[in-house]
Amino acid sequence: MNIQEIVKVFENKKSKPFDIENYFSVLVPIIQVKGELHLLFQVRSNRIRRQPGEISFPGGKIERDETPKEACIRETYEEMGICEEQIEIIGQLDHLLNHTNDMIYPFVGILDKVCVENIDFSKDEVEEIFTVPLQYFMDHKPEVYDMSYKVAEDNSFPFHKIKNGPVYQNRIMTYPVYFYEYEKYIIWGLTAKITRNFIRELIKSNSLK
């Protein structure tokens, strides 16, 4: 291989995350409730395998032949029965890589002519739905706690081949976990993190006016 061949490989290559196996997309749904803006959440069914009983936004894994935006619209329909014509995607939040190496693309959407009481959500995937006033998140910062985890002891891993190997072997990694508490609901983890980022964007925009 010569230098011209190497140039040809990289000259039109677009940068993207590598070593990511799973890509997910979620919708942050804004809905009107009695003239006030709310965020719509779901409690995941206890019958599903992934995170049963936890609170989330509608969303899921991106299929091979669809865009992140298409995925969040499809998943919102499958989980909440809200069709594409009722969702106005107004923008995209910063995407994030979680601690399990999943890439998540959050979108912000306005639900048009959707009444909470009439949402026919999937009973197979969703236990219940609820809303939280947008102003609540503007007025209440999330609680934040540090979660730590340590590299698992594995005698088969060649720490002895690494300079300062014992340092890596005993390393403790820490990341923040956010919690919002509203009535009987605890919104935490990834959903709280996305909510926090969404609210921060709104507050930042207001501070610039």
Automatic annotation (TrEMBL):
Gene Ontology MF terms in the entry: coenzyme A diphosphatase activity; metal ion binding
SUPFAM superfamilies assigned: Nudix
Naturally occurring in which organism (per UniProt): Alkalibaculum bacchi
Keyword field: Hydrolase, Magnesium, Manganese, Metal-binding
PROSITE patterns attached to this UniProt entry: NUDIX (PS51462), NUDIX_BOX (PS00893)
Required co-factors: Mn(2+); Mg(2+)
Superkingdom to which the source organism belongs: Bacteria
Domain spans labelled Nudix hydrolase: 21-157
Keyword Magnesium included in the entry's annotation: yes
The keyword Nuclease appears for this protein: no
Annotated protein name in UniProt: NUDIX domain-containing protein
